[in-house]
Amino acid sequence: MQYSKTWLKIALIALPGLVLTAPEALAAKATHKVTKQRQGTFADGIAAVVNTDIITMKQLDSRMRAMEVSGNPVSKEEALSLLIDEHLMNSQAEQLGIRVTQERLRDVLNGIAQENGMTLEQLQQAAKQHGINWDDYVANMAEQVRMEDLRSQVVQSRVHVSEFDVKAFLAQHPTGMYPEYKKNVVSQPRYEKREVIERSFDPKAVAFQHIYIRVPEGASDEEVAAAKKKADEALAKIRRGASFASVARQYSDGAEAKNGGDLGIRMNEDWPELFMAVTKKVRDGGTTGVFKASNGFHILRVVERRGIVNEQRKVVNVRLPDPPQAQLTPREQAARHDGPVEVTDTHVRHILIRVTPVFSDAQAKAKIDDIYQKLQSGQQFADLAEKYSQDSSAPLGGDIGWVTPGQSDPAFEQAMASLQPGQVSAPVRSKFGWHILEVLDRRTEDKQASIRHDLAYETLYQEQAQHVLQDWLSQLRSQAYIDNRLTGQTNRK
Fold first, then answer.
1. Could you tell me if residue 322 is inside a domain?
2. Residue 136 domain-assigned?
3. What positions belong to coiled-coil segments (predicted)?
4. CA torsion, points 419, 424, 430, 434, in degrees to nearest 10?
């Protein structure tokens, strides 16, 4: 399972669908019938009964909405089947004692944060901003990791892919993949009929504020120019942020000046045609420019319009989003490439100081800085790695062997790629903590054959694993009491 999905999708899919455990037994051992009390309490809200637990209709609806938001819509029956399987798997994990360590969970969360370009603290803040409870999110991620560990345990003991199987597959599919794998098919546009309500506003009345700069009858050109200048000054003040009312009191020659230029509200037909024409494209709260009439210069502010909202219902065809196009990984692209695929591996060793709930990022950074100073003073890398590194490679002097591009943490890999053999990096932060790296050597080889071999193995492994998991889930269902209220089917163990 990859944990590089966006945290939001993971949260949306997983949080709403947790199966609630009933506070008392729902079924008698002999008959598995729901008690009278629970029938009366939950009769209209139960989607399914699984052994002694229930799945509510609310949980089912939440899961369906979450799947739709994540781009994977399913039917109600399919969503309920998923919830039933998750419950059965959870019970199995409990029986097998599968647990997720805090260290493992921390690495997963750090990985999700890094994939989204965040620190763990930023991921926590982002969850809060989206209304997602962080403790619930962490608990849910722990459950997802636990379920993946359970699936891995089931599969590993039942799946076997031989070298003969791999060679036979490569003889038919030289790239190590089926020809149709991630082949993008151009689909026809999909449409859905939806009822929409179109609303339109028919204004019937409008309220204005007014600034009037009077031009006397028979005024000279100089008087007209002075009046225009006064109107322009008033408009400039308004546009610099002064209130229309204060400017009207200061500049307007109109009778309404003392009231801030308020003309009140009237029906459209009761206003001068000139007023209606110049304000036709002015939004509510907006102000016109200076305009001239026979009696002088004017500025209007549209206070508000009132009218009738017309609604019309109609059915329209809405185009649905196209399905996402599959993208080949660099390794898959290399497998399909014609000709040799040269890959440069790096022999590297490192020192790791982990960030934990009890050892903060700042503390880990201070520790790695101290180790870096020891390196600069001449102490040996291998000795410091063996003494301080918190990685399993510490007994080997930090040597993790040959690393192929794409195998390691992106930040780790970027730092590694920037070094020449014999060079040591400054401290580097990855999802695991703080590192110091030393590149020991590099080699370049044609790895197309090994890439194709690995892809063929993975393809066959996944095929077998899918069948194994389906058979295993079928066995779990056959051994459980399941009362599916949607289909009306009951399985009594």
1. no
2. yes
3. none
4. -170
Structure tokens at 449: 């054959």
- Per-residue pLDDT reduced to its tens digit, 244-290: 999 999 999 999 999 999 999 999 999 999 999 999 999 999 999 99
Q: What residues form DSSP beta bridges with 256?
A: none
For residue range 154-209, what is the model confidence (pLDDT) as tens digits?
Answer: 888 889 999 999 999 999 999 999 887 776 555 677 788 888 888 889 999 999 99
User: What b-and-e string marks burial along 41-53, b requiring 16 or more CB atoms within 10 Å of the CB?
Assistant: ebeeebbbbbbeb
Describe the chain by its helix, strand, coil percentages, rounded to 5.
45, 25, 35
Q: Is residue 162 part of a domain?
A: yes
DSSP E strands, 376-477 = 399-403, 428-429, 433-446
Q: Is the predicted pLDDT of residue 89 greater than 80, yes or no?
A: yes
> What distances in angstroms separate CA 166 from CA 154, 171, 332, 492, one per listed residue?
22, 9, 17, 42
Domain of 132? 44-185+467-491
Tokens representing 78?
């399919």
Angle at 419 between CA 414 and CA 425, to 5 degrees: 80
Helices 120-129 & 134-156 angle (0-180, nearest 10)? 120
Q: Are residues 214 and 274 in the same domain?
A: yes
